[in-house]
Amino acid sequence: xxxxxxxxxxxxxxxxxxxxxxxxxxxxxxxxxxxxxxxxxxxxxxxxxxxxxxxxxxxxxxxxxxxxxxxxxxxxxxxxxxxxxxxxxxxxxxxxxxxxxxxxxxxxxxxxxxxxxxxxxxxxxxxxxxxxxxxxxxxxxxxxxxxxxxxxxxxxxxxxxxxxxxxxxxxxxxxxxxxxxxxxxxxxxxxxxxxxxxxxxxxxxxxxxxxxxxxxxxxxxxxxxxxxxxxxxxxxxxxxxxxxxxxxxxxxxxxxxxxxxxxxxxxxxxxxxxxxxxxxxxxxxxxxxxxxxxxxxxxxxxxxxxxxxxxxxxxxxxxxxxxxxxxxxxxxxxxxxxxxxxxxxxxxxxxxxxxxxxxxxxxxxxxxxxxxxxxxxxxxxxxxxxxxxxxxxxxx
Length: 396
Description:
It catalyses: Random endo-hydrolysis of N-acetyl-beta-D-glucosaminide (1->4)-beta-linkages in chitin and chitodextrins. InterPro entries: Chitinase_II/V-like_cat (IPR011583), Chitinase_insertion_sf (IPR029070), GH (IPR017853), Glyco_hydro18_cat (IPR001223), Glyco_hydro_18_chit_AS (IPR001579), Glycosyl_Hydrlase_18 (IPR050314). GO terms for molecular function: chitin binding; endochitinase activity. The chain is built from nine helices and 18 strands. By secondary structure, it is an alpha/beta fold. The protein has one domain: Glycosidases (TIM Barrel, Alpha-Beta Barrel), CATH 3.20.20.80. It has an eight-stranded parallel β-barrel, surrounded by five helices. Strands 12-11-17-16-15 form a five-stranded antiparallel β-sheet. Strands 7-8 form a two-stranded antiparallel sheet. Helix 4 packs across helix 5 and helix 8 runs parallel beside helix 9. The radius of gyration is 24 Å and the shape is globular.
């Protein structure tokens, strides 16, 4: 009797727990979508305004991204403190709506390769810094953004057409970030806090041409730095080579591994370092036949850029890892990069594929870095071959 009574009581308790579980599950399923866990690796996809004509905001794989950085806010003109972007307000608002419905954050990225002309002058003046901060806060409020990304190429050194002050740019950039951080934190508190990020070169920011060894003052102001670990080889190089190598090699000392070490030595913790990955590659016509090495001289003026989507759609790659003859796919195990070669035309292409991107994701996960940023999301296939492989790597 005593045992049976205990069993009946236990069964009643189990039924009660089951009913509560059903109620909880039903309630939870009706709740709004939660933001993606901040403890998981960050996956940032840059989305440039010029891609919108062929790759609309509705096509962005938001659920596979934690953040979208909309590129770019650029100066209205030479010396201007007014910023614009080549997109309609309605289109941008639509992007933000889609992203937030998927639990994905949206940041507006200022600058870029062609839009960094005025940064040096802006940060050098207290009045112009204040105007920049006011402009940024206006965009955040108008479009319900989750933060601001600054892609200044480059503080203290030349980029495309930008002015620069080798001695003072980095110090003045710090002043701008302090003011921007203070203004955002004053307006957006607690769960509404806004992020500030920066896209950076492979070397830490410099002063008088020398990379700084101590950037710890920037750490509390920035949620993350995204290192642009691509464009290692191109038309500016003396030979062909990997566009975005994971590892260094005897022929090349610039790679993801060397870049993240440099930023860590300068004071940035791994948890605030984002590794840049490329969904595009670079090609050229070799000046001599290539065999097992991807480092050979190339013909001047033959450089060309390819997106991964191009390689798949133009019949250069039959599958993600198989080339169409006469193209041959090689894989450099030292730099962990694939490359293609056409012996008939001597054409060479360095790029990233699912194999190399999975390795990069594993590297990020294994070493505790914050995550990855992608330039750029429209360059993947419709089935997101690259993004899927990258996320597999990030799961370790």
